[in-house]
């Protein structure tokens, strides 16, 4: 008896605790996902937990809390932007994973509407970050993120860098309205950004969605402008919408100049909705961007009004989530690749398996932590997923199929290539081979980088030829290329007189490649194409760059501490200096050419400018370019060395105070133009 009473007494407390624990957990995941753009569990796992909480709350209404993650849109506002209240709330969407869920939804809405006569629009669910654009008299006036649904971050300046978003509409449409869409990063652009990151030895970005969302939160719009973001629109909010249906409204949006994808259909029944879903479940892999489901919406706007909203989502819409393309297969072997910067990447060699239309044999295992976290072992049956990334990834292990003699994976301690002991810096997920100048793969990858299209663009030599030349002892570094002789090359495997000649011609031609590309080619870590261009324009020749101090470097516009340190350590190494001197002797361009100086003047003669605020005549980047083209230099922050500050509207108060205390003249853009004339 006593035991029973205790049990009954304890039960509600347990459920309450369980509910609170789930709420806590979900709040943490929301924070990781929306604020840090770095989720630590899969969306599917997240959705399961949310559904579990929904169920517990429905069964135990006494624990209702308006602040529960089931009652609120998951996002948050950040402190880095102006917080703006939404005129019309922004909602999330209810999720479903099965046809039954959709049929239940249909029943619910038909019951509320008291009619069988409902048609739907089906759209794809674009995977990015939601945005609300406000137009007044045909002009874009603000762009705000969803935030917590009530208020969001005002990111107008960043949004204006996205070329497909019309700043002024083709025709007037209502006095004012809002249009909502998804900021996405197409696969192409995402993969290109990652190639560049890998190129300079940075960890690649995880996935397009996080990267798109993270890009919106960058403080520097010129950085955002470099990212190939796009915006797909799906909803107009207007007081006096002249259209009667959602579909017609979207057509109108398209006419106004917005990018509204074509994969939209009006469906007269759930059967037609299912057909749309099935079609796009496979066709979506041909799209240039990521989609994670289909959004089904009641087409009639009058019916939408009648249905209204729950605390979190419209009743008139529901998302159907695609299942991620996943297959299981056997992991035969783990091999380790050495990158140009010495970074080690573990690779899963798989029993070939068909996945999303391609045969997959290899998949990325990321790093030692990932292998340990998932306890991945050779012989395991593993789950492989393919997203928009070039290389598929292993996401889990089917433990029920683990062989009884399986052994935990022991990560390598020494370089598979040169046997040097690997190192791991604090805060870095990857292991590195520190033998930068002796490790064969690092040597050949550096030469391969040197000849690559974006660098010296040497025709007639490919990556394999470099390996061959290295193996044969003909080149040890990129400078050796310029000593190669035809008669040395001809006897090599798979070489003929013609190909040897082509190589020599290609190498000779590369002597004309401009300085900024040479600077990129010599492979200073973190100096990518853009940074190389910046440094070349600022320092004009390699010797000036070599003499730059840390303070000089970090004061160059857009050059941070990491790059500055890397430049300094590159020139601390004798071998690098010897190579650079040799390149100079061979006649490579180690200073800006006269041609690239054309149209440029020396009027500003080394004067250092700091640019601050928003400008009317120039856009910020053009202003900086103009300063550099006329012999001036642009610095990132105000110091004693600054000669002038060109101030636009909204110059930051701390900059203003600093300028005044150092008595540095503050001029307008008009003053600047006068200075040039
Ligand atoms: N893994 C994690 O830790 C974690 C944490 C939080 C949230 N999540 C995931 O995020 C999702 C929840 O995020 P959410 O609240 O933004 O909901 P959601 O992304 O599932 O759906 C709502 C959003 O879909 C977007 N959308 C795209 N195409 C659309 C279209 N054609 N029509 C209308 N809207 C369209 C809109 O921006 C809208 O705000 C869930 O899938 C969840 O799994 C994951
Ligand atoms: Zn090595």
From TrEMBL:
The active site is at residue 125. This is DNA ligase. GO terms for molecular function: DNA binding; DNA ligase (NAD+) activity; metal ion binding. Belongs to the NAD-dependent DNA ligase family. LigA subfamily. Zn(2+) binds at residues 415, 418, 433, 439. The keyword ATP-binding does not apply. Its cofactor is Mg(2+); Mn(2+). Keywords: DNA damage, DNA repair, DNA replication, Ligase, Magnesium, Manganese, Metal-binding, NAD, Zinc. DNA ligase that catalyzes the formation of phosphodiester linkages between 5'-phosphoryl and 3'-hydroxyl groups in double-stranded DNA using NAD as a coenzyme and as the energy source for the reaction. It is essential for DNA replication and repair of damaged DNA. It comes from Lutibacter flavus. Residues 599-677 form the BRCT domain. NAD(+) binds at residues 43-47, 92-93, 123, 146, 182, 297, 321. It catalyses: NAD(+) + (deoxyribonucleotide)n-3'-hydroxyl + 5'-phospho-(deoxyribonucleotide)m = (deoxyribonucleotide)n+m + AMP + beta-nicotinamide D-nucleotide.
């Amino acid at each position: 008896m006593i035991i029973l009473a205790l049990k009954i007494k304890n039960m509600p407390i347990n459920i309450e605790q369980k509910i609170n624990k789930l709420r806590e957990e979900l709040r943490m995941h929301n924070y990781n996902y929306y604020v840090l753009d770095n989720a630590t569990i899969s969306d599917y796992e997240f959705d399961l937990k949310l559904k579990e909480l929904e169920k517990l709350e429905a069964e135990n209404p006494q624990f209702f809390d308006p602040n529960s993650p089931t009652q609120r849109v998951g996002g948050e506002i950040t402190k880095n932007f102006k917080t703006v209240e939404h005129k019309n709330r922004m909602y999330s969407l209810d999720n479903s994973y099965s046809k039954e869920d959709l049929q239940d939804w249909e029943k619910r809405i038909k019951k509320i509407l008291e009619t069988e006569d409902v048609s739907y629009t089906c759209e794809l669910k674009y995977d990015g970050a939601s945005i609300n654009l406000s137009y007044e008299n045909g002009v874009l006036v603000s762009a705000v993120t969803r935030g917590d649904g009530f208020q969001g971050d005002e990111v107008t300046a960043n949004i204006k860098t996205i070329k497909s978003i019309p700043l002024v509409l083709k025709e007037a449409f209502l006095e004012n309205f809002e249009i909502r869409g998804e900021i996405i990063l197409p696969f192409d652009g995402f993969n290109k950004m990652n190639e560049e990151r890998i190129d300079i030895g940075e960890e690649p970005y995880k996935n397009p969605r996080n990267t798109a969302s993270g890009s919106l939160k960058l403080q520097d719009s010129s950085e955002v402008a470099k990212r190939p973001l796009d915006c797909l629109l799906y909803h107009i909010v207007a007081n006096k919408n002249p259209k009667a249906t959602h579909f017609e409204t979207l057509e109108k949006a398209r006419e106004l100049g917005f990018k509204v994808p074509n994969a939209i259909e009006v469906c007269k029944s759930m059967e037609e909705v299912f057909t749309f879903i099935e079609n796009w479940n496979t066709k979506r892999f041909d799209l240039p961007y990521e989609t994670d489901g289909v959004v089904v919406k009641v087409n009639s706007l009058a019916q939408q009004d009648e249905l209204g909203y729950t605390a979190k989502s419209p009743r008139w819409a529901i998302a159907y989530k695609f299942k991620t393309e996943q297959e299981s297969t056997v992991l035969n072997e783990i091999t380790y690749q050495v990158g140009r910067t010495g970074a080690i990447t573990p690779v899963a060699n798989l029993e070939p398996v068909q996945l999303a239309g391609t045969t997959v044999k290899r998949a990325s295992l990321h790093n030692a932590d990932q292998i340990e976290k998932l306890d991945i072992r050779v012989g395991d049956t593993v789950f492989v997923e393919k997203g928009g990334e070039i290389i598929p990834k292993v996401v889990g292990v089917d433990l029920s199929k683990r062989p009884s003699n399986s052994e935990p994976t022991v990560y390598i301690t020494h370089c598979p290539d040169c046997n040097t002991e690997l190192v791991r810096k604090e805060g870095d997920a990857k292991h590195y081979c520190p033998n930068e100048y002796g490790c064969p793969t690092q040597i050949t990858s550096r030469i391969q980088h040197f000849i690559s299209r974006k660098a010296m663009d040497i025709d007639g030599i490919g990556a394999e030829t470099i390996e061959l030349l290295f193996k044969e002892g003909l080149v040890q570094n990129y400078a050796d290329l310029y000593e190669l002789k035809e008669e040395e090359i001809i006897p090599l495997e798979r070489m003929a007189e013609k190909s040897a000649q082509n190589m020599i011609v290609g190498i000779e031609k590369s002597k004309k490649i401009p300085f900024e590309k040479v600077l990129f080619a010599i492979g200073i870590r973190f100096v990518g194409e853009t940074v190389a261009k910046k440094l070349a324009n600022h320092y004009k020749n390699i010797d000036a760059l070599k003499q730059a101090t840390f303070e000089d470097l970090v004061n160059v516009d857009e050059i941070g501490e990491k790059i500055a340190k890397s430049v300094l350590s590159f020139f601390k190494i004798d071998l690098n200096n010897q190579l650079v001197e040799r390149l100079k002797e061979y006649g490579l361009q180690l200073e800006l050419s006269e041609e690239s100086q054309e149209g440029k003047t020396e009027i500003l003669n080394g004067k250092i400018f700091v640019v601050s605020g928003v400008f009317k005549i120039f856009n910020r980047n053009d202003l900086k370019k103009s300063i550099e083209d006329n012999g001036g230099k642009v610095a990132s922050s105000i110091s004693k060395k600054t000669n002038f500050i060109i101030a636009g509207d909204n110059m930051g108060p701390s900059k203003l105070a600093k300028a005044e205390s150092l008595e540095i003249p503050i001029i307008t853009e008009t003053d600047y133009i006068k200075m040039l004339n």
